Amino acid sequence: MFYQKTIEQIKTDTRPSSAGAKAFYNNPKYRGWIYQSLLLIFLIAFFYSIISNTLSNMAAQGIKSGFGFMTTSAGFDVLMSLIPFETTDSYTKVFIIGILNTILVSIIGVICSTMLGFIFGIAYFSRNWLIKKISIIYVETFRNIPVILQVLFWYTAVLTTLPSTRDSLSIGEAFFLNIRGLYIPRLIDEPKSFVVYIAIVIAIVAIFFLRRWARKRQDLTGEQFPLIWSSLGILLGLPLLALFIAGVPFHFEYPELKGFNFQGGINVIPELMALAIAMSIYTGAFIAEAVRAGIQSVPHGQTEAARSIGLKERKIMSLIIVPQAMRVITPMLNSEYQSLVKNTTIATAIGYPELFTVFAGSALNQVGQAIEMMFMSLAIYFALNMMISFIMNQFNKRVAITTR
Amino acid sequence: MPIKEFKPLPAQPAPVSTTGPIAWLKNNLFSSPFNIVATLLILSGLFLILPGLIDWLFISANWTGTTQDACVDDGACWVFIRAWSQQIFYGSYPSGELWRVNLCLFLLAVVIYLSFILPINLRNKVAIPAFLALPFVCLLFLDGRYLGLEYVNTDYWGGFSLNILLAAASIIIAFPFGFLWALGRRSNLPFAQSVSVICIEFFRGTPVLALFFMGSVMLPLFFPEGVTVDKLLRVWIILILFMSAYMAEVFRSGFQAIPNGQYEAADSIGLGYWQKTFFIIFPQVIKVSMPNILATFIMVFKNTVFLLVIAVPEILQVILGALTNSKWLGGHATEGFLFVALVFWACCYSMSMLSTSIEKKLDTSHKH
Amino acid sequence: MNTDHQASIHNMNEDIIVIKNLNKWYGNFHVLRDINLTVKKGERIVICGPSGSGKSTTIRCINRLEEFQRGSLTVNGVEMIDDVKNIEAIRKEVGMVFQHFNLFPHLTILENLTLGPIWVQKKPKEEAKAIAMKYLERVKIPDQANKFPGQLSGGQQQRVAIARSLCMSPEIMLFDEPTSALDPEMIKEVLDVMVELADEGMTMLCVTHEMGFAKTVADRVIFMDGGEIVEQNTPDTFFDHPETDRLQLFLSQILQH
């Protein structure tokens, strides 16, 4: 009797919290729900207080809400615009100009940084000690200096020290570089210029078919076709031929000094130049690093195996190294391009009129509707980044490996 | 048959044509026609640029003096940097109280040093609370009001010390937030997960400059009427949120690097979710994430310069202010920017070296 | 002269690889010391020795994966000099199988095999595929043709690697520790393929620790240590009557169990 009782006692004592185990709050499932409800309550309280604070603050400061301002006239001028703009135009137009300028500098940045990145990334593997060192110095210098400092450096320390318009640096009286930026000749179409454009289209289509034909011929006969050189030949030759057949249906509008300023041609303002140069060099350093990592991720055994079956070095590069390296490089390129687009906002520091400067800056200062205008701007950056992400993912699918 | 004794052939020196400086030059600089041309081009470029650059930077540079008039030679005017050095480093913080800023920097260095040298069993117990307390201790000292020291308004805080302290304070407070968001993103609670994902993606997808702008134009609207929140505090909040999003992603990849066996082992000895997370998983995540944490810190450290856009007197803003000072209108932008670039480069480069060495160590300790 | 050469191709006693006084340095480290080796057509040679003895380096010199600084090396009458044409000509004659297979992970098995025939031998695709399938059948995995290397076991991958080399119809096959990275149960399937290849009269140089393979297949076994050839002999003499104390020690260490 006594003995049994003890056993029973021991059992109840040692069973870990027998009562608690049945309690609902120890069930992981309910626990999860409790945490989530707490989170929900916190968020509701948080947003409730923010929204009520904001509303009362806005009422107190007399800030309007809604999107009525989009149709009112902006009343300020924009430094540079890809579409015609006058001070009487609406904020909607300012918004669009901002977007276009952002896209312009992003595209220039993406193209130039990719070229710089691939050149310096590949230079790392040069057998020339100097070239390799230059690649390392480039990457380690420029990625470790804040990009905004680089922008200011190019803008303030380099471009504003250029000569005045009267003493412009010029190449062949066609290109002029001075404190107001770079002036380049503008290409003006004449009536028959369409012939050349058609020739360009035909050349692109022809290269497409040439590639298919070359591939088919190689499949059937094994013979290889010098695709790159012949494509280049067609791409250059055909439009050139059309150009001369049509009697050069273009002329250049050269920039000319009239009074204190240049007229005609295309003017690249120093703000755009500084921003594009700095962004390209900065992002290029990161891309170079990505390219280096990508190429290094391909084991040396791959090259050795390709050599042992007798592939030439150039074919080893294009058939073995590049396809494998691109799988590593593409995702990194994706994030570098996205940060490039986000970094274009530093244009504010030098006044290049991209979206952030003209809309979230100048326009917001006048209208004062911070919430609407900030979110409109943010939406554009998110949209641009999603677009980059989409394109790069499509590209990634082509280079991705099915299984490893 | 008698066994012969094997006598190894003596090692011979490598032929002179394959070792030594001449062979090195031949292999590394003149190995092919292309390389010969490239080498010559680069060398001639260096000969064109370097002498003038060295002359401007050092030989003809002006090193001594206190005013712009001291800059008589053609070279760089380092007097500019000298004259403004206190501002560049401490902003407008009162000269007599600079020890407070130095103390904060010293404390930061001590805590970082401690976290490296403490034995493993003490490291998490001592270093983590010390890190978390640090920003608030620094706040008390810099502000001074509650310690009976002279009150220094945040408008006077500035310079490079502000860049350092702000970046450090942000990443420290971002640690717990980032970890929480990363846990949320990994958890199987649908609502918690989507909240985490939205937070992370919003703060990662927004340009940091836009966040600073929001901090200065939108954040004030969120606080109750009549409450004014200090500008630096708003910036700090923004930086913390921004960092948390990046840290969350760092931790997420850290979680993924941890073998599943660790979770199973933790489950098998009967640890609860929070115990498992903090005692088993967290230390390992920190360890494998260290290189990425450093990379994130380098990023935020560089991004503190963006604060000049909203007129926070960090290092570059000080330089820009100095450039427009009526006594220094001689155009010293190049010197100023080069100096700031050098300071940032030295800091970021040494941190990225550290990160690479940690990465290598981790690599070998995984492979044995 | 030319006719002599033509005639001698059919002579089984022709020297297909001639290595004379080969010396190689890594920086100042003397890795290969006066290697002299002549291989006859159809000969099967096994090279063994402790690690770091230079055995892999020796065979990697034969297809110029490693350069050497002194001495001469002739493969099938072509001298290995610093000339792209010569290197290409030699690589066409020499196939190589690696310790870690080195299959191309981004290509299917079939694509791995047809890569050489299409891009080096300039064969039509269908013909290249037919060749590839022929060799895949010989290594007994034709059903894996459309998989990727990562989906195959180690033994299967190594057999694919052998087939990839064979597709180039080489005169000589080099094996660089082909079974060292394999699980024990997979070694046999690879060795079986190698034995079959040896029976067909392929000239083979194998760096391997598989002494059973050496005893049954090799015409000659070479022992290297410290970058030099210490001893070479027929397998019987090599294993039963080693001439030097160094080989005796080596054999006693590896044959203990």
UniProtKB/TrEMBL annotation, chain B:
Q: Which Pfam families match?
A: BPD_transp_1
Q: Which organism is it from?
A: Candidatus Endobugula sertula
- Keywords linked to the UniProt accession: Amino-acid transport, Cell membrane, Membrane, Transmembrane, Transmembrane helix, Transport
The molecule here is called Amino acid ABC transporter permease
Residue ranges of the ABC transmembrane type-1 domain? 160-355
Q: What is the lineage of its organism?
A: Bacteria, Pseudomonadati, Pseudomonadota, Gammaproteobacteria, Cellvibrionales
Q: Which residues cross the membrane?
A: 34-54, 99-119, 126-142, 162-183, 195-221, 233-251, 293-316, 336-358
Instruction: Tell me, in one coarse class, where this protein mainly resides.
Output: membrane
- Domain of life according to the entry: Bacteria
**Which Gene3D superfamilies does the entry link to?**
MetI-like
Q: Which GO terms describe its biological process?
A: amino acid transport
| UniProt keyword annotation of Lyase present | no
Q: How does it sit in the membrane?
A: Multi-pass membrane protein
Write down any Gene Ontology CC term.
ATP-binding cassette (ABC) transporter complex
Q: Which family does it belong to?
A: Belongs to the binding-protein-dependent transport system permease family. HisMQ subfamily.
**CDD domains in UniProt:** TM_PBP2 (cd06261)
Fetch the NCBIfam families from UniProt. HEQRo_perm_3TM (TIGR01726)
Q: In which compartments does the protein localize?
A: Cell inner membrane; Cell membrane
Provide any one GO MF term from the record: transmembrane transporter activity
Q: Which InterPro entries match?
A: AA_ABC_transptr_permease_3TM, ArtM/GltK/GlnP/TcyL/YhdX-like, MetI-like, MetI-like_sf
